[in-house]
Specification:
- The complex is a heterodimer of chains A (about 350) and B (about 120).
- Chain A contains ten helices and twelve strands.
- Chain A has about 350 residues and is an alpha+beta fold.
- A five-stranded antiparallel beta sheet of chain A has the order 11-10-4-3-12, with helices on one face. In chain A, strands 6-5-9-8-7 form a five-stranded antiparallel beta sheet, with helices on one face. Chain A has a two-stranded antiparallel sheet with strand order 1-2.
- Chain A starts with 10 loop residues before the first helix and ends with a helix.
- In chain B, about 75% of the residues lie in helices and about 0% in strands.
- Chain B is flat and about 70 Å long.
- The N and C termini of chain B lie far apart (about 70 Å).
- In chain B, about 15% of the residues are buried.
- The mean pLDDT of chain B is about 90.
- Classes of the chains: A alpha+beta (about 350), B mainly alpha (about 120).
- Chains A and B meet through helix 2, helix 3, helix 4 and helix 10 of A and helix 1, helix 2 and helix 3 of B.
Chain lengths: ~350, ~120
Amino acid sequence: MAGHATQQIDNSTLWGGKVSPFSTSYGKLMMWFFLVSDALTFGGLLIAYGYTRHDAQDAWPIGEETFNSMPFLGHGYPLLYVALMTFILIVSSVTMVLAVEAGHRMDKRGVVKWMIATIIGGFFFVGSQAWEWYHFIHGSEFGKVELADGSQAIVKGHFGEIENFKVTVAGKHHKKGDIITEDLMHQYQHAVVAGHIEDGVITLHDGSKATIKKAADTHFEMIIKKDGSKHKVGDKLEGDKACKQYYEVINSGVANKVIYGANLKQNEYGPQQYAQFFFFITGFHGFHVFSGVVINIIICLGAVAGTYHKRGHYEMVEKTGLYWHFVDLVWVFVFTFFYLV
Amino acid sequence: MERDDIIEYSLDAHHSEEAGKAIRKKILNVTILLTLITVIEVVVGAKWGRATTTGTTWQMIKYGYIILTLIKAAYIVLVFMHLGDERKSMKYVILVPYILFILYLIFIALMEALAVGDAWSTYGG
């Protein structure tokens, strides 16, 4: 950028008082100081994450295994969704810098146009993150399973659809011979966690018992994440034998052998701290994005009202721009250390 | 009361249509570069990620990721945030304290993590 910062001014004038030695306005300098402190916060969080992760070694979840779903398409698309999120954020950063550039030409229409584009990009990103969280909390269809030898494994593959439950013993709500076709997955997972499935017979919450009609799973593969007496971390079990082992646990009638999704106490992906760091760091970042969108909207309204045009410069747009780029900058690091490495 | 001793620095940031064209071209180039780096990272992550590669190869990929990330970060800070166009004193005031603190934090965290790891392997959990 041209202007004062590129002018040759001798040091005694620059540092002699009455001018800013940085050739910058007070507000912009303070925004930079705030960003430095905020960057230290994020730096501290990511370093704490690295420290914890170092302890866990191989048990730590692998990005491309954990994050491999796409909206409407299902599983099997490693990192694609988060790449899309990253792209959205980079593009919204670009539209922001274009708004700043338009401001330097006193082009009010340009500023408003690019600010609106930035706000839309921000909303897209926040929405994507909500979807990502939903998926993370909800978990996979198989969950993490504790096998007979005490080892724990995550499961990859295509989960055969549950077609219906056929009631064999009547309960409060269902009669014998009823075919249940609604809310099957939810009831099934609930029963698995509670240990209410024994030898293919599910005990529903109203006390009725039913047989499960389910299509066969395909591409079944288990990856060991915690040592047991027979399997070591990193072992891969494939095919019918692995599938049989998995369903022995499901059909054992023992509670808490399978974990679906994530909460603050446990998660199916890896050590307990993994989900905690995920929620905290991406949540803190998402909160920054959300505040950024709100600030952008306020500044955009100011630009529409002509406040900055009357003032003679669009420095407010530049300052919010700094914040918005910072949010993008943090995401670049979160992306690397949470998803790639 | 109007004050005449305050310099309005932001007015100096104004530029002409022609200068704007050159700046927009630079922005476009940086956008393409950042997108390209992201695409490379994702393709490498999906094809040669931690699940499939081990040993030295994975170490190289890991450090490659960190270098690519730092390149991305540098372009965002220096071009998008215009820090590259500021006076030298300003650049140093922003960057030097941050880099010093973060390097120190990484250093003590790594040292501590190694010590804790040693303690776990020596005395067990």
